[in-house]
Amino acid sequence: MNAKETIELGVFTGYSLLVTALSILQDGKIVAIGVDREAYESIGLPITKRANIKNKIEFIESEALPALDLLLQRTRLSRARRNQASLQLRPTQENEGSFDVALVDANRANQENHHERLMRQVRVGGVTVYDKTLWGGNTVLPDASSALLIRRRSWQDIAEFNKTIA
Ligand SMILES: C[S@@+](CC[C@H](N)C(=O)[O-])C[C@H]1O[C@@H](n2cnc3c(N)ncnc32)[C@H](O)[C@@H]1O
């Protein structure tokens, strides 16, 4: 789809970041939001330098939700500057973004809020990808007997989110 602007929630060592950076256009950009700067800088960053894609990545050390809100403000500011229009910092229900692709691989608990913010910032016709929506089938047919409680809760959270999206 000739993606140029992408966003990723949940970076860890930057594996999916690397795959995305190698796939998007040469002048493409990825906004990568994660809480674990150390994992990214110690493992991912040296690899992005070797792969010559460091310039494509803007790493933001933050929880996803406040960072998404700040990004929305940043978009509005630059749009207002460009159009010399008045600033409107109230949230709207309109799609305001220009991301071609979003990859969501952060904590599941806040997934609906992440989704709501992303739907305003991914362009119409763009793609939003959620990690582990099926999780080996367990979010549809949970093999609860063999799972730890924490895992069963994650499956339930994802199943609920899948219903919301559907
Ligand atoms: C499954 S890992 C991401 C893996 C990564 N996409 C990859 O392919 O290497 C999830 C990451 O999300 C981060 N994380 C958890 N909650 C988060 C949040 N609310 N906002 C941003 N990052 C979060 C965790 O610290 C962890 O590094």
UniProtKB/TrEMBL annotation:
Molecular function via GO: O-methyltransferase activity; S-adenosylmethionine-dependent methyltransferase activity
Keyword Methyltransferase in annotation: yes
Family annotation (InterPro entries): Cation-dep_OMT, SAM-dependent_MTases_sf, SAM_O-MeTrfase
UniProt record, GO biological process: methylation
Cofactor needs: a divalent metal cation
Annotated Pfam families: Methyltransf_3 (PF01596)
Keyword annotations: Methyltransferase, S-adenosyl-L-methionine, Transferase
Family the entry assigns: Belongs to the class I-like SAM-binding methyltransferase superfamily. Cation-dependent O-methyltransferase family.
Protein name, per record: Caffeoyl-CoA O-methyltransferase
Organism for this UniProt entry: Punica granatum (Pomegranate)
